């Protein structure tokens, strides 16, 4: 095991504080222990480990526990020191950790799923453990009795989960690219609505109960912000990653969104501005600029004796245009396009230089990231992935504030 410690903060970028190595396979989940210099990890090598920072500055395992099946998901409740570990075989195992973080006692096993557990959340108020799995369902179980309370099935693998503890609403993302909002009851549930906007499987969700915003990341490399509380169906598209978005975290205090992608990209998005909603793509049988027919418009091609053109769409206005009328590319961060996208020539002329100023910062994590977790109060972030490495970051230079005091330097 090795650790990298930087004593001098680097300006305007995440500072790598420590690198923890020891797992023999991909690390599925890593969580920072609140108010402690410690990390809990769960891996495909069937181990759960609690790492505590020693006087040397390095993290060494104080707990090393081997499970019966690869660990695929984890939830930790610090006040009660309860850990819930989801496994590849569908079971969830609960442990209680000692006050000194040197011992972990088995509590019970929950037969939650028939296949790999993908996400877990624990609600202390109702004593429910809620989870999603590759058996295409969300389940909720009673932690007092260990019994199943209810299940709801989807048409594809359920991949991620967020839960509103106050209203008992669950958001479930699946591999079809759909997000389902459910109202969970003691022994039943009802589907409130479904959200469709991604072109790839949902890989991560984050719910902010204060502003009532839902953020979703997907394998289509994009993030969508859904304004659930506004009830206007408003969505904002964020595109800046070049690989699937694996994890997201919204910092309500500073109105910033932190996202991580599989290629190691770390992005911090400024959400404290008035952004524009991306337009719906318009459909047309001919270019809405020059009126040349598209290749499926046989009648107009015959009438005008012209060859049909391929259809494209301007990302700024949404109009259906041909290649000759959309020769330009431009970034347009206020609409979420942080890299250059196709725009029609007239929209290109309307975009000013100041409109192209980035509204996000991008950084290299320099390792595969499949899971990320933040301790927002301390401005710390932990990332892990298939390269078996766990990295601990100081994010305060990037988010631009002292999160513990709420003091903003901006």
Key terms:
WD repeat, mainly beta, 2 domains, disordered C terminus, 3 helices, 34 strands, Herpes Virus-1, 410 residues, 4% helix, four-stranded antiparallel sheet, zinc ion binding, WD repeat and FYVE domain-containing protein 1, endosome
Describe the structure.
The protein is mostly beta strands and 410 residues long. The protein has 2 domains: 15-275 and 359-399, Methylamine Dehydrogenase, Chain H; 298-356, Zinc/RING finger domain, C3HC4 (zinc finger) (Herpes Virus-1, 2-Layer Sandwich). The chain is built from 3 helices and 34 strands. It has helices at residues 298-304, 345-350, 396-399; strands spanning 15-21, 27-32, 38-43, 47-53, 59-66, 71-77, 82-87, 92-97, 104-110, 117-123, 128-133, 137-142, 148-153, 158-164, 169-174, 178-184, 189-196, 202-208, 213-218, 222-227, 235-239, 245-251, 256-261, 265-270, 312-313, 320-321, 328-332, 337-343, 360-364, 371-375, 380-384, 389-394, 401-402, 407-408. It has a 4-stranded antiparallel sheet with strand order 1-32-31-30, with no helix packed on it. Strand 10 and strand 11 (128-133) form a beta hairpin. The chain is globular and about 80 Å long. The two termini are 38 Å apart.
